[in-house]
Specification:
heterotrimer; A mainly alpha (186); B alpha/beta (261); C mainly alpha (213); A: 186 residues; mainly alpha; B: 261 residues; alpha/beta; 6-stranded mixed β-sheet; 4-stranded antiparallel β-sheet; 9 helices; 12 strands; 32% helix; globular
Chain lengths: 186, 261, 213
């Protein structure tokens, strides 16, 4: 229940924030959120700044220069855009640290199973990918050529497809073995 | 309990994985299924667990044919799933619940067993998983996942336990623990696949050996087969290697795996 | 080429959710029907695959690299609706589990890449299937990536029309299509080529093996 509430509140907050255009309000909200975020506020702020840096710096600088050249005001826009994007990103990062997604979706058993299984499978496939990458690095004494890098990425992709094929069959049998599909029996 | 009659299995457009395999397992038996990599051991377990259907031949469970149609009948499938439990070689395949506690409770709940919470705690304690009860299963280590799978399957109190290469992912200490644990289970019929002969010697009295091309090579006393080097060689369960002597001479001899620690 | 939160006006992203909702409902129905009782494990594996595919590097000249979108590969291997559904789930999971990507822009991203991008790839692949298979895969995947980039550029490009404050400064993303289209489409014309080549490498090695995920 707590997690479902958290999820709903976050959704409402995120949508509401996109209707706020006054930089002052956005700044106040950002401060409030950071104060409420508790002890990991600095880590969240840092993570958010890194996540948005590239796009925000490009858009802000691009706009400031083009508006500046034609003598138009640009400061409000730059402050507004950056505060809003930062506020939304901080909120989402905070949520991802505190939300138990599996509990939040337990109104639908099917969705819950899909999410639990997906998380486990992501971990398995990530391990596989890391192995392939490390093996490629370990076998490439010199800087690999574009062609070799393409071949390596191709093998990684194929390995993932193969793994998916294998996992889907195994998982299906594992679940069947434990009686998961028996409700459909007559 | 389980009877196989001329069971053949092939994937569509593929070679036979199993050919004409027949044997039966009586309640209380401890059977090890031996064979080299890729000889069809896992496929055979999956057939017995009703996950695959034979291309030809028949499998019977308490005298009733184990067919796709039978497995669609609720009464039959529930009894079958409650009595026959299988632990996969890859534990990830069988874990799909949000927490370790829910994972163990899954089977007992579906069978409306009483006092599920107690059962969960008891099995978690036996498998040394108590501190993980609220953790997601995918966070466990390989050995812990294997123990969790055992807990999930045994909590349902099956009569026949199918174990597919149960020590493949285990370290020596866990392997020793598993052997002790299985030996302590009275009243449990077990069919364990392995290619490890000394583990087999610990776990079973009867051996079924699959040869290349999925044919039944041997069915009988395990003790007897362990001394039959020719047969073990034929089943690719023994290897040859050169022995160098101090005087510089060499000879080749057949060698049976002994140590499993 | 994902659009993050905060750049898109509510009029735009709410409209996108309105369009995406029936598409999601339809895809759930189709996937449930096609996968039958295997839907849960298959969809989970497919979503995990879609997720991890986005972390595969596309090597680019000069030692740089981009990331695979993976939608073209998923669509060619598993069909339009499973690809769209898995990709949409990936967008949601990225936000909710890792705090990455946008949630308000989720529907726009899902429609541009997961639905229209995949549909373009499949449609063009069907048209040019008689061609050499490598060419057919590379061209159709490339087209899917480029069309997705074009759509994203257009969605961003209309944002200046979505409101300005008293001093005339934009409320949302500030640049029109004259800027967004070249900035997004030109690099993706290159990345799409890498994506196409990678997709072909993987699919050709899979051969005609059926992938029952």
């Amino acid at each position: 229940m707590r997690d479902r509430l958290l999820l709903s509140m976050w959704m409402v907050a995120v949508v509401a924030i996109t209707f706020i255009h006054d930089p002052l309000w956005l700044a106040v909200l950002l401060i409030v959120v950071l104060v409420l975020a508790g002890s990991d506020r600095l880590a969240i702020l840092k993570g958010a700044l890194i996540a948005i840096a590239l796009v925000n710096v490009a858009v802000s600088a691009g706009y400031a220069i083009s508006a500046g050249v034609s003598g138009e005001p640009w400061l409000d826009f730059v402050v507004r855009l950056n505060l809003r994007v930062l506020l939304l990103t901080v909120l989402t990062l905070w949520l991802s640290r505190h939300l138990d997604l599996v509990k939040a979706v337990d109104f639908s058993p099917s969705l819950k199973f899909v999410i639990v299984l997906t998380i486990g499978q992501i971990k398995t496939m990530q391990r596989l990918l890391i192995d392939y990458r490390q093996a490629f690095a370990s076998r490439s004494p010199a800087r690999p050529s574009l062609r070799d890098r393409m071949a390596s990425s191709g093998r990684q992709t194929l390995a993932l497809l193969d793994k998916a094929e294998h996992q889907a069959t195994e998982l299906n049998q594992g679940m069947r073995s434990r009686g998961f599909f028996d409700d459909r029996a007559q | 309990m389980i009877e196989l009659n001329k069971v053949t299995f092939a994937y569509p457009d593929g070679e036979n994985i199993l050919a004409d395999v027949g044997f039966s397992i009586q309640p209380g038996e401890r059977v090890v299924l031996l064979g080299a990599n890729g000889c069809g051991k896992s496929t055979l377990l999956k057939l017995i667990n009703g996950l695959l259907t034979p291309t030809s031949g028949e499998i019977r469970f308490h005298g009733q044919p184990l067919t796709a149609a039978a497995l669609r009948r609720r009464e039959f499938v529930q009894r079958f799933r409650a009595e026959v439990g299988m632990v996969f070689q890859q534990p990830d395949a069988m874990l799909f619940n949000a927490t370790v506690a829910e994972e163990i409770a899954y089977g007992p709940q579906r069978l409306d067993m009483p006092e599920v919470d107690d059962l969960v705690r008891r099995w978690a304690r036996r498998m040394q998983l108590e501190k993980y009860l609220d953790s997601p299963p995918y966070q466990l280590s390989g050995g812990e996942k294997q123990r969790l799978c055992l807990a999930c399957v045994l909590a349902v109190q099956p009569k026949l336990l199918l174990l597919d290469e149960p020590t493949a992912n285990l370290d020596p200490r866990s392997t020793g623990w598993l052997v002790d644990f299985l030996l302590d289970q009275n009243n449990l019929t077990t069919l364990v696949t392995t290619q490890n002969l000394s583990l087999a010697a610990e776990l079973g009295r009867r051996a079924i050996i699959l040869g290349e091309h999925g044919t039944l090579l041997y069915d009988g006393s395990l003790k007897q087969v362990l001394s039959d080097t020719d047969l073990l060689w034929q089943a690719n369960l023994a290897h040859t290697h050169r022995h160098r002597h101090a005087d510089g001479t060499e000879h080749r001899h057949v060698h049976v795996h002994e140590d499993w620690s | 080429m994902h659009i993050p939160d905060g750049l898109i006006a509510p009029q735009t992203y709410l409209a996108a959710f309105a369009v995406a909702a029936p598409a999601w409902a339809w895809s759930v129905r189709r996937v449930a029907r096609d996968f039958d009782d295997r839907m849960i494990p298959r969809l989970a594996v497919l979503t995990a695959l879609a997720f991890v595919l986005t972390t595969v590097m596309i090597p680019l000249p000069g030692g740089t690299s981009g990331h695979l979108v993976g939608v073209g590969l998923l669509a060619l291997a598993f069909g339009l609706w499973p690809a769209f559904l898995a990709y949409s789930l990936v967008l949601a999971l990225s936000a909710l589990l890792f705090g990455a990507g946008g949630i308000t822009s989720l529907a726009i991203n899902a429609l541009c890449m997961g639905l229209i991008g995949a549909a373009v790839t499949l449609g063009i692949h069907r048209l040019i299937q008689p061609w050499k298979s490598s060419v057919a895969v590379v061209v159709s995947v490339w087209a899917g990536v480029v069309v997705s980039a074009l759509l994203v550029a257009l969605v961003l490009g209309v944002q200046p029309l979505m409101g300005r404050d008293d001093s005339g400064q934009p409320l949302f993303f500030p640049f029109g299509p004259a800027v967004t289209i070249p900035v997004l489409v030109i690099p993706h014309a290159l990345i799409g080529l890498g994506e196409g080549l990678l997709t072909w490498l993987a699919l050709s090695a899979l051969d005609r093996r059926k992938v029952p995920a």
